[in-house]
Design brief:
By secondary structure, the protein is of the alpha+beta class. The chain contains six helices and five strands, in the order αββααααβββα. Strands 1, 2, 3, 4 and 5 form a five-stranded antiparallel β-sheet that branches.
Length: 161
């Protein structure tokens, strides 16, 4: 009985640590469709909550946009119908944790696949030290899909036939 309880506690602690690691690179966010981009891109509106405004805000917005496009999908809005996530298999994020940590944690990589549209960033104070930061982000979904296919994280479309 003691081993079962100890095992349950260890599992809970591991999930808490994993959630903490995830939130460092990708903040809590909401993502909705912001319109139709040029061929190979999706325009999304991302909103994140932060305690401080400063350096790294655009990087967090880009990381949240990439995470949403990859794993959550993009919610529909009045501007467009929304999109399904690129990665549809369960457990891919956990299985390839190092790859995704480097993708979301490296500003140069996030800039390669997502770009904040100039003049779209808005900041609203929601509390004494809380801010809701919203921006329109252009995500290069075709390039992102090719990256995942090249690294054998998802199957290529050509592999299905």
């Amino acid at each position: 009985m003691k081993r079962t309880i100890l095992f349950a506690i260890v599992c809970c602690l591991m999930q808490t640590v994993q959630a903490a690691e995830k939130t460092e690179a990708v903040p809590e966010y909401t993502i909705t469709c912001a319109g139709i981009g040029i061929e190979g891109t999706w325009l999304v509106e991302v909103a994140i909550m932060q305690k401080k405004i400063g350096a790294g805000v655009e990087e967090h917005l880009r990381a949240a946009a990439l995470h949403g496009v990859l794993f959550r999908g993009v919610a529909a809005s009045a501007k467009c119908g929304g999109y399904r996530p690129i990665v549809r298999q369960d457990g891919v994020e956990e299985k390839n944790r190092e790859f995704f940590a480097s993708l979301f944690g490296d500003g140069a990589k996030t800039l390669r696949y997502a770009d904040v549209v100039n003049g779209s960033v808005t900041v609203v104070r929601t509390g004494k030290k809380d801010f809701r930061i919203t921006a329109t982000v252009s995500v290069k979904k075709d390039d992102l899909r090719h990256l995942l296919e090249d690294n054998k994280i998802i199957e290529g479309m050509g592999d299905m036939f």
